[in-house]
Amino acid sequence: MPLVYRPASEQDLGRAQELVVRSINDLTERHGFGPMAVIRPTQFQSFSLKDDPDGLWVAEDTGELLGFAFSWVCGALWFLAELFVSPGHQGRGIGNELLKRTLDHAQKRGTTNRALITFTFNTVSQGLYIRHGMFPRLPIYNFKVARKLLIDRLQGAQLRYVPLEEKPSHLHSLAHIDERALGVTREKHHRHLISDSGIRGVIFQAEDDCVGYAYISPDGHIGPLGVAEPEVLGAAFKAALQLAANSGCSHVSAFLPGTSDVALSIAVEHGMRITFPMVLVSTHDFGNWTQYLPRNPGFM
Predict the structure, then answer these.
(1) Is the pTM of this model over 0.85?
(2) pLDDT at residue 1 is higher than 70
(3) Of 64, 94, 111, which one is at a domain's C-terminal end?
């Protein structure tokens, strides 16, 4: 029976995440990094499926899920959040077929830029993306540190902050910051994060101005973090490190763009170390990456 490529359903998402975790761990173990992915809830995939179902696809063979692709759109930006093929079924053209369908999603929405984040050592995938006109632009590193070590190094004044709320003034500030940092606004994604009771969101303030924002996950992961001006990034990142350390998690982590000297220097000064390297690829350069720290490779 031939492979079937079809739009994903809500019932597919749990199995799809199991496939994603198997594929990531197979890749990272083969490259000497060991297993690093764990099964996580599918809230963002589920939210995106309801928001724009054209972006999620599966490859299936007699009921077995062999591939999964997930893309989202904000303004002129199309972003490929996940594209994975089950180990043992790679090399059959499944990834290419799924990518074609998600690229149709980009075309339908009239986007002008296409982007994604992938492992730097995933050379096969990078070749696939280059063939489709998406080129390596920006190194991104995952940094991590034990909370105890971080607390011993935190010091100095912090930016003032207030809890992030889903109200017009906060959403307006978030849109302004994202427009300056990324060139697109992401209101729907902010609404999704704010609605998640497990994630802590804050607005950073200087006098009466909103100068940045950050989200802290229960496991101590920071991101996304955005600021209105590059000069604020250092203070905002340090404040986010303090917030994460105060949460009681065992480790604190963040994805840091390789062009952000300030963020990289602060991370190293606070005992953070690189756990694995990634790269952003896109059809066109975009964003000021001295003003934005991604959340993860799927959310950006």
Answers:
(1) yes
(2) no
(3) 111
